Amino acid sequence: MEFPYSKQAASLDESVQLANEFSGCIKGDEVIVLNGNLGTGKTFFIKEVLKNLGVDEVSSPTFTLINEYSGKFKIYHFDFYRINKPAELIDIGYYDYFNKDAVIFIEWGNLFPEMLPKKRIEINIAFLPQMNFMVDEDFARLFSIYKYE
User: Fold this and answer.
1) What is the pLDDT of residues 111-131, one digit of tens each?
2) Dist CA 102 CA 76 (whole Å)
3) 80 within 8 A of 112, measured Cβ to Cβ
4) Bridge partner list, 75
5) I need a surface site. Which of 5, 45, 102, 148 has the fewest CB within 10 A?
C-alpha cells in the first residue's frame, strides 16, 4: 500500500479487507490517527487491524481514554472524543506513551491536532451516499490514508 491511498468500501467485508491490507504496513513504531464522524467505523477498523497483530479482545477507549494491548507489538489505543482540552491528555501522561517499541492508535485526533506528532499516518473515514444498488448503504465508506513524515 502506497500513501496517499484512497479506497471506497461498499460493504463491511470490504472494510475488513482494507484493514487486513493496512495491517501489513505496520512495522512497529507508527502513530495511526483515525478521524471520522460517529459511526463511521474507527474502532471497528482498529479492531480488524489488531486481529492481524495478534490482539483478539479490543474495546473502545471512549470512557477509559486509553487501552493497552500486547500482540505482535505493544499497542496503545487512545480516544480523544471525551477530552475537553489538551491539558487533560498531558495529565494522563500522553507523551509518555510515545516510544519506538509501540504502535499508537488515536481516534478523533482531529479534535486536538496540536497534540499529534508530525510523523504519523492519518486515516479519514467518511460515509458514502448510496451510489448504486451494489452499495450497502449501511456500510459504504471512503477511506483516505495519508502518511506524514
Assistant:
1) 999 999 999 999 999 998 765
2) 7
3) yes
4) 69, 103
5) 148
On the 0-12 / 13-18 / 19+ scale of CB atoms within 10 A, 6 is: exposed
Instruction: Determine contact, residues 122/35, Cβ cutoff 8 Å.
Output: yes
Nearest to 100 by CA among 117, 124, 78: 117
Closest C-alpha among 49, 45, 1 to residue 23: 49
Q: How far does CA 123 lie from the centroid of its chain?
A: 6
> What CATH number should be reported for the domain holding residue 104?
3.40.50.300
Strand 74-79, strand 141-148: pairing = unpaired
Sort residue 83 into left (φ over 0), alpha (ψ -120 to 50) or beta.
beta
CB 28 within 8 A of CB 17: no
Residue 137, pLDDT > 60, answer no
Secondary structure (3-state) at 26: coil
Number of domains in the chain: 1
At position 14, the amino acid (one-letter code) is E
Classify the C-alpha dihedral 3-53-103-57 as positive or negative.
Answer: positive
